[in-house]
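User: Second chain of the day. Same drill as before.
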Amino acid sequence: MGGEERPSPRELLEKIRVEEEMARKKELGQLKIFLGYAAGTGKTYTMLQAAGELEKQNIDVVAGYVEPHARPETTALLEGLEQLPFLMVDYKGVKIREFDLDAALKRHPKVILVDELAHTNIQGCRHSKRYQDIEELLEHGINVYTTVNIQHLESLNDNVASITSIMVRETIPDRVFDRASQVKLVDIEPEELIERMKEGKIYQGVQAQRALQNFFTRDKLTALREIALRRMADRVNHLAEEEKKIFGAGEYSTGEHVLTCISPAPSNAKVIRTAARLAYAFHAEFTALYVETRYLQNADEKVKKRRDENMRLARSLGAKVATVNGEDVSRQIAEYAKVSNVTKIVMGRTAHRILFGQTRKTLVESLNQYAPNLDVYVIPDLQSGIGQRPYTIIKAGKFLQGMKGTDFWIMLGMMAVSTTGGSLLAHFQMTEANIIMAYLLGVMLTAIFTQGYVCSVLASLLSVILFNYFFTVPVHSLQAYDASYPVTFAMMFTVSLLTSWNMSKIQKQNEENAKRAYRTEILLVNSKKLRRAKSRQQVSDDLAVQIQKLMQFTVIIYMKKDGVIQMPSIYLRGGIENGGEESLRADYTSRAEQAVVKWVFENGHRAGCTTHTLPNAKAIYLPVMEDDKVSAVVGMVLEERREIAVFEYNLISAMLDEAALVLERIQKMEDLTKSISEHTLHH
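Assistant: Same format as last time:
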């Protein structure tokens, strides 16, 4: 037919996805952002002008939270506009005013003005960030006008810092900016902005003088303005791409896939932001890969905290976070890139280290060997210490901390057995090579029966000392008359060390394989049991059992039937004494906890402990989604208030997805049974 190319299944699916997304957006509230490149450009003033125009059209508009900044012109526009009362939050004995989200939801206007999109809420508010308040307003069909400066976009954080020498702490994910139906750039010439500052229309007194000397210089303002204009242009291009997908003009997907890596390095945040900007520019799929090594598994809390922060950053920038295990980081990255059709990799620069007079290969160089066809972008490090791996220096105290008491005695026992065996060999006039082999066997067995490297290294060192003391002339002395003995000792120590190292590595790999097999088995068992479930209670019981097998948490499950939230099923973790069960049950189902559950049912997002929404809760609550509806909420009590690891969280999410399918099937069966019953009664 006519030479027309039919769209591929992938293109058709992408088109359907975009259409569904657009349809869903129509049901939500619309977001309009007034964007500036610095304070004082007139964002709030322009927003209030737009609100005045809406009032003239008899559109229901209210001011939820507007910060006039003591500027007379802005304050004048607020007069006559309905304003919601502030939420007064007590913080360290001081009353702080915040946006009252509940009052706004209750009032439910057509349009609401909420200033300062990037604002961080005071502790005690429902959400930790104001953009989360606005997202909830949009979910309830309320249109929102808000303001933000370009430096608050997360992906541009490093660019802004390089210009202004100021690292902005209050940021918003780029997805919030990109979901806006309208963005209006409130532009003003840098010279005019500086003049306004000098006249005291933005800041006054000492604050104004300090701003003029530091931030409000012509070159900095010009650079920030350029960034804002460029970001607006990128947004226009993206909107054009979305229209192409819907109306069939051009290709549906660029086929690009950008990969970056997550690590605890201080520079990793910059690398992730750069990768996010690249993915946005190429209209590409974006993935952040975390390679878990032995060091990272056993790292201290400070290192793990930095890693978790970088993971959260990647998610906030729209990345899909994946986790793999292995010691050869570059190989793991290359293998993942091959199976995931990655086209571009963004890496941080790693330091070259000298070893025996030769330059050791960097991670990027090794990656180029494993995956020579991939485009690799290397991001330079501007911070001190960046590029240095956090595990290059190991303190002796920390080294010995990894050794267990039982492992130490096993190591001493193996050395004692090796020495006894060596004595027997010497008695029968065997050569020194045979005695050395006895010690190598002892080192190998130590590596097999102990955990970590500590005992293996000590066994290697001790084997040399014992061999020297008992079997070299003069015996019972650490001296050696033969000139070749130092070489023998060095070779013996090297071989012992390499042997123990490899055995420990194999042991660790076996442990990781066992863990992965166990977790896979849990998923398979969970899927099998859930498929056999005939009722919601059975789904709840099976799901709780599998989660507890994986994580050993107290699990609380709320089901919804016919639109009504049912009484929760509580599954206490093992080890809780019988005497405290009742008090714990009451504690876990208190009014405060149930308020969090109700919010998750209404909004379909996770909340509670370790999240940014109602973080004071005792448990983290995850929704079980059927299409766009929440059919159940699963709570897990985090007694130590520590975040769930990424791999475990992904497994739990997979379990919840499986449960959602089963609950959907049960609901369809109930609807069918009800329909048949009604039909029978009718006839």
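The radius of gyration is 32 Å.

User: Great, on to the next one.
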